[in-house]
Structure to design on (611 residues):
């Protein structure tokens, strides 16, 4: 309606001009700067006290021999926890399982979700049903997802054995436990990744697609030249996120197997949880947390570098 | 970028909806894929529902069917008898409501500042924190939190849990709300300022009403997050009468992993309903208002 201000408001959605762009008698910058602090404090204080603080405290704990129910004062022990971790075969086994799990869940999940998002973006019948169903696993508590799949995998009354005519203990046998849990992992967040990619697809300009089709570009070629470049940022973001979520998984596997059988599904989070809250080894578990953060950060950095590189190419 | 298709596709309409054999095969393939998706997604859910209504005899039978022959509500009754479901639901409700309310109350002003002054160092730091917090390893945070809360005697109390939930849902709440706040036209606020309204007055009577749908969506999201949360509740709440619903659900499984399937399924179903309903209400807002928007900016 008012061309000038409307335009400035719209540009504010993107990389906007500095707040001083507010003209004339509007909320002055200096004054608002002061008020801004006042508005920010209610959120800032809890963040510092309950999130940033504990994180730093956790890093400090990794260098101590902090234990549950300890009467003598906690000692600073330097790198001893980390040295112990290096020698702890159980930890490395759990670490390896965690990486296998995160990759085995994230990669198929992403590919499936991409396929589904492309599918649901088509004008198909029953699309509404798929979209409606897609939110259900998302809204379910992870504990319930775990319980539900326990019912599916149940050796006697399970859906899977009934369908296949077998009598396997899917979650209880050494060879099938991890794959069985991975399937649940894929199921649990598939909708989240799908719907995110679907949102990305809505950004793909339809005219570009049609123009490419008119030029005789096949489906694969249209995907590579039109669709993928448009959804690339969102695809990279959600794949990185889902990888992190999976590295940090806890409830799902805790309910499904509790880490068993024989530690075959003991993800790092389960290991650390047991170490801290069953055996009371707070310092040791904190050191474990530090190692996990370091690894995830390195992987993320690699991912981000790849992303930036791709943007340069584009 | 491609060769002109003079020979193969004479008319544009033929390209878009030409009923060729290949096209039909592709459509069939698409429907098959969709069917596979629906089966993969729906069957575990249907099995859960079916199990919840099966009498013990059918659960013990060697060939359990999809539809219970003698559907019963006994499992629900038994679920309430076996575990303090009602109280745990009450605990979950208190924790989730309080967490949701506190989260939006403290997040809204900050999100507003982030949206209006997003070049300021504070907003940049907040955005950075939001990104980093997505990668938080809970172990590294929960151990110190456990020690600190124990020190101030907030372990095994809902208040302690609520505090943790608030901070836990803050990043996402800020993210969502800042998105909504950016969408509020600045010139409306300027008009109010020109009319002589104070900044606070403008915020309350102009900005907030426009933000209301976003605030409601964010609150519901924070509610669902807290309602479904398990890890913090497991660590922080020890006595059964204080535990939340997801923790109580795991008691049905027992230490040996032997479970009473019927009541387990029934209770699980009940625990899912509230978040399912709320999620259905805000689903569109969540997907459009968050990640997609975030990446676009």
């Amino acid at each position: 309606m008012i061309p000038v201000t409307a335009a400035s408001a719209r540009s504010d959605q993107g990389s906007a001009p500095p707040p001083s762009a507010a003209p004339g008698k509007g909320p002055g910058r200096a004054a608002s700067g002061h008020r801004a602090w006042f508005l920010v404090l209610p959120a800032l204080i809890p963040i510092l006290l309950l999130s940033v603080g504990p994180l730093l405290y956790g890093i400090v704990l990794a260098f101590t021999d902090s234990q549950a129910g300890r009467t003598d004062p906690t000692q600073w022990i330097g790198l001893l926890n980390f040295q112990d971790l290096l020698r702890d075969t159980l930890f490395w086994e759990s670490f390896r399982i965690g990486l296998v799990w995160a990759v085995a869940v994230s990669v198929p999940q992403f590919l499936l979700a991409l396929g589904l998002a492309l599918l649901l973006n088509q004008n198909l019948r029953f699309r509404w049903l798929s979209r409606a169903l897609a939110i259900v696993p998302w809204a379910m508590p992870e504990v319930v997802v775990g319980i539900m799949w326990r019912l599916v995998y149940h050796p006697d009354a399970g859906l899977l054995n009934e369908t296949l005519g077998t009598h396997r203990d899917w979650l209880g046998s050494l060879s099938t436990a991890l794959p069985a849990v991975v399937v649940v992992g894929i199921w649990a967040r598939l909708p989240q990744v799908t719907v995110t990619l679907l949102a990305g697809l809505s950004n793909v300009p339809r005219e570009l697609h049609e123009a490419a089709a008119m030029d005789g570009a096949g489906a694969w070629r249209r995907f590579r030249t039109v669709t993928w470049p448009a959804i690339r940022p969102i695809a990279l973001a959600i794949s990185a996120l889902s990888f992190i979520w999976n590295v940090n998984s806890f409830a799902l596997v805790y309910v499904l197997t509790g880490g068993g059988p024989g530690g075959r599904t003991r993800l790092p989070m389960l290991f650390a949880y047991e170490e801290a809250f069953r055996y009371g080894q707070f310092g040791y578990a904190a050191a474990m947390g530090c190692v996990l953060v370091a690894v995830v950060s390195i992987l993320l950095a690699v991912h981000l570098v790849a992303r930036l590189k791709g943007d340069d190419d584009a | 970028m491609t060769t002109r298709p003079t020979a193969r596709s004479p008319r544009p309409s033929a390209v878009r909806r030409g009923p060729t054999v290949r096209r039909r095969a592709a459509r069939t393939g698409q429907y098959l894929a969709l069917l596979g998706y629906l089966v993969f997604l729906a069957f575990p859910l249907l099995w859960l529902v079916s199990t919840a209504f099966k009498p013990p005899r059918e659960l013990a039978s060697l060939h359990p069917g999809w539809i219970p022959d003698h559907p019963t509500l006994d499992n629900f009754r038994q679920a309430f008898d076996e575990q303090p479901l009602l109280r745990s639901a009450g605990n979950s409700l208190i924790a989730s409501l309080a967490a949701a309310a506190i989260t939006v109350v403290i997040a809204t002003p900050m999100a507003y500042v982030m949206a209006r002054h997003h070049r300021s160092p504070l907003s940049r730091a907040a955005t950075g924190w939001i990104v980093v917090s997505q990668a938080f390893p809970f172990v590294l945070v929960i151990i110190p939190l456990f020690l600190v809360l124990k020190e101030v005697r907030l372990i095994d109390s809902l208040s302690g849990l609520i505090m943790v939930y608030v901070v836990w849902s803050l990043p996402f709440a800020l993210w969502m709300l800042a998105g909504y706040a950016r969408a509020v036209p600045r010139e409306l606020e300027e008009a109010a300022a020109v009319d002589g309204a104070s900044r606070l007055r403008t915020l309350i009577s102009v900005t907030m009403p426009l933000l209301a749908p976003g605030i409601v969506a964010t609150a519901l999201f924070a509610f669902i997050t807290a309602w479904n949360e398990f890890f913090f509740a497991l660590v922080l709440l020890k006595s059964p009468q204080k535990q939340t619903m997801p923790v109580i659900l795991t008691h049905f499984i027992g230490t040996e992993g032997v479970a009473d399937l019927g009541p387990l399924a029934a209770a699980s179903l009940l625990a899912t309903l509230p978040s399912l309903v709320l999620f259905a209400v805000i689903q569109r807002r969540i997907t459009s208002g968050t990640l997609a928007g975030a990446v676009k900016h």
